[in-house]
Amino acid sequence: MNRIALFFKGVCMGLADIVPGVSGGTMALILGIYTEFIDSIKGLHLRWVKPLLRWLTGGRKQEDWDALKAELGTLNLPFLITLGGGILVALGIGSMVIPTLMAEYPVQMRAFFFGLILASVWVPLRMIQTGKGPKLAGVILAAVLGAGFGFVVTNPGNTFEITREWTEVTSEGETLEHLARRAPSAIPTDAIYWSPKNEALRESMAASEPEVATKLDTLHHGEGKIDETDKKALKARAEPYNEIMVPAGVSVQVPRPAYWYVFAAGAVAISAMLLPGISGSYILLILGAYFFILNALKGFIKTLLGGAIPVAQAGYVVVFLAGVSIGILTFARILSYLLHKFPAYTLSALVGLMIGCLRGIWPFRSQIEGVVVNVWPSAMSGPVVSALVTFVVGMLIVGTLTWLGSANEDEETAKATS
């Protein structure tokens, strides 16, 4: 495969991973590299370490060097490095652009990705060898199950209550945001402030900064329920609380999940990222672990940059990354096995999953009795027209990419043949 084309496919995957509700797995499937992507991850191993150590410590013998090259040759490194480079570039650039677009033009951006994903369903669909009789029934059943799973998972009302251990953290005269990262906390700053366990914090604020306390009280009682899997809305709600200065010596109760839950969340989230249609960060939100992982990572980095040892955060970061590593290697092997052993059924389930997960990026939303729900637009307004335009643009982009990637069609179709 042309390395330049592969690099830009990595860019597309990286951009997709930034968008809430969209995954890099979706883009890999659209671009015709999904099977090779999964197989390349599955093929990762550490057998090359032993000959490397022998070569470094044993006088750099030719036979050890040949053994090292032989082991490295079993890894699809050119593919992974080129694709990974594109993903990293996209994450760096896209993280400065796409979140802003999602915040400023949420309806239009969701419509764009809705059109992009809907049009892309045709890519894996044409790769499926449906057959007749029982096989056709199995293909249909797999698609229905995939769609049902995706539809349920992307329901904003589905969040898990996790087991948390509340820990007392004494303020060092810092913002509530800094304290939440130092702890680290499993919930955002607004939830910390209004927790029944933190009455002492609210009393302290009322005494030291009564105007701020009154403003927060007014804001709190005027808030309606928001989508608990909407990162932008959650972030906007927490902003006024981030800058609260917690007086030194004030004790704040902060919740943390169990280590086993952090490990499981990392494994499940990274596995979800390998599937088309499901975003890893979206899964972390559903599992109730998103803010904890974010606080732990940010606190870890900021503490290191400050020249201190991030003791409180290090254990959680290591456990989370261990879950990610084991999850991606294990799930990639399962997916690779299914794609090669039962290609028609697996691709059918993935197509169904893509369709079911469209619920999570439906462009038009409203609040009904305090709950965020998907709605059908009632009138042909300006935002609706612009959403239709971006929807069509998304579909046209997929059509163009499909045409450009036609050279790989025979290879990918052969992989899907049962």
From TrEMBL:
Record keyword Transmembrane present: yes
Signal peptide interval: none
Entry keyword annotation includes Membrane: yes
InterPro entries: VCA0040-like (IPR007163)
Sorted UniProt keywords: Membrane, Transmembrane, Transmembrane helix
Regions crossing the membrane: 79-101, 107-125, 137-154, 258-275, 313-332, 344-364, 384-405
Protein name: DUF368 domain-containing protein
